[in-house]
Amino acid sequence: MITALELGLVYAIVALGVYLTFRILNFPDLTVDGSFTSGAATAAILITQQVNPFLATAAAFAVGSLAGLITGLLHTKGNINGLLAGILTMIGLYSINLRIMGGANVPLLNQDTVISGLREVAGVGWTSVLILAVVALCFKLAIDWFLHTDAGLALQATGDNEQMIRSFAVSTDRMKIVGLMLSNGLVGLAGAVVAQHQGFADIGMGIGLILVGLASVILGQAIFGTRVVVQATLAVVLGAVVYRLAIQFALNAGLNPNDMKLMSAVLVIVALLLPQWKGFRRIAQRRRGRSALQAAAKATLTEDAPGKKVG
Fold first, then answer.
1. DSSP 249-298
2. Domains in the chain and their CATH numbers?
């Protein structure tokens, strides 16, 4: 349970990155399968060369951002379909990752890592989970802040209505590149932390990661809602935790570990079908109705407050 919670909170950073492209930019980015491994490979190699693990993790963010930059340039400047651009970058990164690692995997046994430092401070227990929860919350709050800046609002507008925001002299190409770089930077950073958590970086560790990210985003938002950005990002973080717990429960129930990808696909299907269920839709409508009534009541109280002008 502790391990599942820890991994869920680490993968929440991946889910936030996928949220930026999938929900905010409306961009089907498959680069994450490669940038996740790139971040893990970069951090692992630097740590084995006695580089500070925090600097190695920061370097993983930079390498992931570079992967996002390549996809963004292929799409915006090369006029290549977004889905195809992500696939091309992902395929190219496979060979690059092998070059970085010098082989199929890099062990991190007996190396000082971010996770080994966490173990020294908190051990294996609820304290370590709490620390990772605070870290995940910090990333969530940073995304919330960014999305409420002018650049973040332009990023959201690019995903919602590209033609409209372009009429306001906003470079949608630049916004797409920024979004892809930030998304893949977060994914690369998460890859570095996962490699340090499991004790090695492997060339195949990023295969199917997009499914993990989508499962976290879709499952979390189907359960916890998406009314505002703050709620949506919290739902993504909680969705990643729920996803890892669901996988852990399935394994504890005797499911073959080889069936994990099938389990992920089933979870995504359930999350996509759940909002279409009539009972779920009625619950969601009631929730929205209560929110609207509360907002109206609050507005009425504000207008009628002493010293306030009405009308």
1. HHHHTT--GGGHHHHHHHHHHHHHHGGGSHHHHHHHHHHHHHHHHHHHHH
2. 2-303 (1.10.3470)
3-state helix, strand and coil shares in percent for the chain, rounded to the nearest 5: 80, 0, 20
CB 37 within 8 A of CB 97: yes
Structure tokens at 48: 């084995």
Per-residue pLDDT of the chain (311 residues; tens, 9 = 90+): 788 888 889 999 999 999 999 999 989 899 999 999 999 999 999 999 999 999 999 999 999 999 999 999 999 999 999 899 999 999 999 999 999 998 889 998 888 889 888 888 777 778 888 999 999 999 999 999 999 999 999 999 998 888 888 888 888 999 999 999 999 999 999 999 999 999 899 998 888 888 888 888 888 887 787 778 888 999 999 989 988 888 888 888 877 777 777 877 887 787 777 767 755 555 555 555 454 444 444 444 444 445 544 43
For the four alpha carbons of 41, 45, 48 and 54, in that order, the dihedral sign comes to negative
